[in-house]
Amino acid sequence: MGGELRKAERLFRAKRYGELIRQLEPQIFKYRESFRFYYLLGMSCLHTGDLAGAHSYLRRANQLKADDVSAMLALALISLRRQELPEAIEMWLAVQDVEPRNRIAQRGLNFVKRNPDPSRIAESLDRRRMRSFLPASGALLRAFPRILIAFAVAALLVFAVPLAITRIKQQQTPARIGLAEMNLPANSEVADLSGHYRYILTNGEIRKAFDRMKRDFSQYRDNLARREINLLVQSNATPIVKEKARILAGYLKAPNFATMKDSFAYLEVAKDPYLYQDCYVDWTGRVSNLVVTRKAITFDFLVGYHDERVLEGIVPVTLEFAANIDPIYPLEVLGRVELKGGRIALAGVSIHQLGPSLPKSPEIGPPPGGD
User: Fold this and answer.
1) pLDDT digit string, tens, across residues 169-183
2) Taking a C-beta distance cutoff of 8 angstroms, is the pair 165, 113 a contact?
3) DSSP sequence for 140-179
C-alpha cells in the first residue's frame, strides 16, 4: 500500500474525512486500479454528505472488487438516502448472495418490512439506526440533520414501499404503466418485406426484440428498452409494431447518477450510433475546447482519456445548465446520446468532477422539475 493510502487509513480511523478527500483526490491516476483508494474516498464522501461523490467512487470500488460486502452495504445506504429504495433492497439482496447470514443486509430488509408506515420509519431512522446500516468500519453520517432525513425517507416510502415489500417477498413486480397494450397478435406477420430499412429482421427476430423491449421495461432497465425500441423503429417491422414501440418510449424515464443502469461503452455506441440514439451513457474523460455562454456550456469530451493513456473518441457535449468545470481534472458525464450529422454527441444531464475544482455541488445537473 502506498504512503498516501497508509496516511489515508489513519485519517479515516480518526474521522478526518475532509482532509482524506483533499489528500487522495489528486492521486486518482496513481491509484486508478486500487479498490482501497476508491473505497476510502467513497466512504469519506458518504460521511461528509457528498452522496454523488460517494456513489461514483464506491461504484468504481464495486467494479474493482464486486464481492466486497462493505462497498455493497455502503452503496445500499446511498440508494436509501437518494430515495431509491428498490435499488437499496437489490444491493442488500446481493450482499446476502455473498454472505447469506450478513446481519446488516438482513437488518435493512427487516427495517422496511417492519415499518410500512412512513411516519414510523422516519421516527426510527435516527443516528444510531443510520450507523447500523453501515459496515463495521463505518461511522456516523453527520452531514444531514435528522429532520431532513425523516422528510426524505417519508417521501421515499410513500412511493416505494409497495414495490419494496413485493421485491423482498420475491413476488411478481406489478406491471409498469405502459405495458398493458404491449402485445402482438400471436400468428400475424410482423415483418415488412418491402422497402428499404436500416435493419432487416426476420419475423422471429422482430418478435424477440419486442419481447426484450417489454422485459427490459418491466424490469426498469429503460436504457436497454430504448435500444430495442430504436432497433424496431428503424427496422422492417410492420407499422403496428413500430407504433407500439414509440408509445412505450413515451414512458421511459431519464436517469441520474444514482439510478443509472446499463450504460453503454463508447466503442459500442460508435460501432452503431443509430442503435443508441436517445440512450443514456455514463462516460469518464477530459475536457477540451471549453466554451461558456449565457445559454449553454459546450466542450469536446475526450472519452476514456481520464488517465491520459487511451483516447477512445472525442464527443461534443452540451450542458444547458450552469456548472463549474476545471479542464485540468477528469470529468464524469451522464448524458443522452444525440446524432448530429451522423456524429455522436451528448446532451449532458449531470456531471461529476473527479478531482479538486472550484466550489460546486458534487453532482451538478439541472434543477429537479420533471417526473
Assistant:
1) 444 445 566 676 678
2) yes
3) ---SS-HHHHHHHHHHHHHHHHHHHHHHHTTPPPPPPTT-
CA distances from 70 to 26, 77, 141 (A): 24, 11, 16
Judgement on whether residues 155 and 181 belong to the same structural domain of the protein: no
Whether 78 and 95 share a structural domain: yes
> What CATH number did the domain enclosing 147 receive?
1.25.40.10
Beta bridge pairs of residue 340: 343
> Strands 343-353 and 297-303, how do they pair?
unpaired
List the grid coordinates of 306. 481520464
Q: Which residue has the higher pLDDT, 365 or 84?
A: 84
In a domain, 260, yes or no: no
Predicted confidence at residue 48, as pLDDT, reads: 83
| pTM score | 0.56
Q: Higher pLDDT residue, 357 or 47?
A: 47
CB 203 within 8 A of CB 194: no
The pLDDT score that the predictor gives to residue 152 is 45
Range 69-88 burial, b when 16+ CB lie within 10 A, else e? bbbbbbbbbbbbbbbbbbbb
How confident is the model over 317-333, as a mean pLDDT? 91
Provide the domain count of the chain: 3
Query: Looking up cell 443486509, which residue turns up?
Result: 105
**Max Cα–Cα distance, the chain, nearest Å:** 71
- Residue 12 inside a domain? The answer is yes
Nearest CA among 12, 41, 14, 9 for reference residue 25: 41
Provide the pLDDT for residue 238: 92
Domain hosting 298: range is 266-353
E strands in 226-367: 280-292, 297-303, 313-319, 331-340, 343-353
